[in-house]
Amino acid sequence: MTVVDDGSREPEGRHGTANRGSAKIPDRVQPRVRHNDYSVLQPPPLGGWTPTLDVSVVIPAFGETEKLHLVLAALAAQTYPAHLLEVVVVDDGSDPPLTLPEIKPENTRLVPTAPGLWGSANAVNTGAAASDGSVLLRLDSDMLVYSDHVESQLRWQHIADYLAVLGHKMFPEFVPGLLTPQQTYEAVREGRAAGLFDRERAGAHWVEQVIDRTDRLRSAGSSAYCVFVGATGSVHRDLFDAVGGMDPALILGGDTELGYRLAQAGAVFVPDLDSSSWHLGNSQMRLRRESGARYRRPFVSNRVPLFRERRKIHGRQWSVPYIDVIIDSGGHRLEDVRVTADRVLAGDMSDIRVFLVGPWATLGAGPRTPLDDPELDLRLLRETYRGESRVRFVDEPPGIDRSVPFRLALPAGSLPTPRALRVLTDTAESEEAGLVSVVLPHAKSGAAPHSRLERTAAFARARHLGATEADIDRVVDEVYGVHWMDWAGSFVDDLAHDGPAVPCDWPAELREAQLEAKRQRARADRLERKLRWLRRLRTPGIWRRVFR
Q1: Residue 122 maps to which CATH number?
Q2: What is the tally of structural domains in the chain?
Q3: Which family does this protein fall into (predicted)?
Q4: Distance of CA 368 to CAs 123, 360, 364, 371, 374, Å?
């Protein structure tokens, strides 16, 4: 039950402890979850299975020693095998420094954060780097868990390695001094954790409403990541490392941003409701919700393109764009590339990034005949967009940026409408498609080209499940779906001139046409009324004056 460890020894390297559990799920075909419908996964019953994966419970902590000691006492009474469980408590600059209590899991360590760094995100990264488990379970220092809390989450992690499992919690009123670590340990060990507080008076978390209305997140689609908000949740270490861990620049909102990047890497979000925990008192975000939301909004908006508050703002550019647009420029005329790029840049979606792919490195600076230069179109194209901050010149198609939700490939000479990008992404969302393809009308660059809008999360999951470039579209179809749409409404058939396209404001043109039609109807009404009046007149002199 107890281990003497003052935290003075050096942390062991990752996966460095001998005789720990298997570092991976046993080799087999991973189950393929479509969207976020994890119904195909069937976890074993609690107490009716044999765990093999080792888990590291990482606890970022700052002060509140009493709560931390109760949390560690509850962890000491877990049903998960003790030899597969380690706990790393990260002291985030507490004054006085934290100490470990007598009652704690057998393998518990206390490590400090690096000097000059602070915040829960940095503390979680510190704990992850100092730990050894194949699975990371982040637990806040005020989370008193039921005896099967760790076991319940780890059942899912044994089935698939791309799951983000969210633990259940309740918010009781916490009275200091009411519980001792010994009382907590005994209650949890004996299965009486649910009676430690009044469940009827305990507050629920807002994520429960989302979980309820989305069939336990199975129908949540691309928004499932929103509920992965820290306190208690687990992922495989490989997945945590693949997304780069938590962003230490985010003092608040880092859990939401991590959930987004996990989703972009193909993760499936699972709420584990078979066990629970007590959040000892209200969290800061519950007590000061409006202030917290005001603080988080700009930080999360810059990093999470799918953030609801950001999607309400138009005409802005952000640190992470909503779409990467790739246009093949090599071997194409300036006019053909420009007509496509201009339409994209002048469209109604501004948070984009455009990559012009071509042999830019071959452009020399030596003497040449300007008008007969074989690389003239490339030079003119580079100069055309030299001052456009949203345009990048690359020699090869850029690697996939997992932070960007969508990636659109457009052939040079295609003519997207001002709303094309919005139509394509809205279609991807409404159809929940991983790939949206459009067969384009005949364009200047050749016959029957087509565009591809790829959802980053769908292709990331397909690759994680072993898809190759030869069959990745088929696997994407399995895990998300492929949607083909007609070009009408998002692309124009052709241009009547060879110059660059001048994007039309279709809504404004429609309003103008409607006003003109209204004016003509009013004029026709006036003429008709005048004609009826003239027909009623029988005096020949009146008719002579009218005709004159």
Answers
A1: 3.90.550.10
A2: 2
A3: Belongs to the glycosyltransferase 2 family.
A4: 58, 16, 9, 9, 10
**pLDDT score for 489:** 82
Describe the strand order of the beta sheet including 435-439 as a list of residue ranges: 391-394, 352-357, 323-328, 406-410, 450-455, 435-439, 482-485
Token readout for 26 is 């046993």
Contact 86, 133 (CB under 8 A): yes
Confidence of residue 266 (pLDDT cuts 50, 70, 90): very high
Residues 472 and 398: their CA atoms lie apart, in Å, by: 18
Residue 83 is assigned to a structural domain of this protein: yes
Q: Are 102 and 2 contacting, i.e. CB atoms less than 8 angstroms apart?
A: yes
Quick: pLDDT tens for 206-233. Answer: 888 999 999 999 999 999 999 998 789 9
Report yes or no on 442 lying in a domain.
Answer: yes
Closest by Cα among 331, 211, 358, 361 to 272: 211
Determine the structural domain holding residue 344 and report its residue range: 323-497
**Range from 82-91, 379-388, 480-489, 532-541 that averages highest in pLDDT:** 82-91
Cβ 299 vs Cβ 248: under 8 Å: no
Please state which of the ranges 55-59, 151-155, 310-314 shows the lowest mean pLDDT: 310-314
CB 455 within 8 A of CB 479: no
Residue pLDDT, tens place only, 267-303: 999 999 999 999 998 765 556 767 777 877 878 888 8
Contact 51, 158 (CB under 8 A): yes
Tokens of 275: 């066990």
Residues 296 and 346 in one domain: no
Q: How many residues does the chain have?
A: 548
The answer on 203 and 233 residing in a single domain is yes
Are residue 417 and residue 486 in the same domain, yes or no? Answer: yes
- 397 contact partners, CB below 8 Å, separation of at least 6: 326, 355, 357
Q: According to DSSP H, which parts of 190-320 are helical?
A: 207-213, 237-242, 254-264, 284-287, 289-303, 308-311
Compute the C-alpha angle 371/374/376, nearest 5°: 55
Pair of tokens at residue 83: 């030899």
Residue 426 tokens, joined? 């809205």
What are the structure tokens assigned to 101, written together? 């209590």
Which is higher by pLDDT, 512 or 343? Answer: 343
Q: Which one-letter DSSP state was computed for residue 38? A: G
| Residue 472: inside a domain | yes
Indicate the residue type of 131.
Answer: S
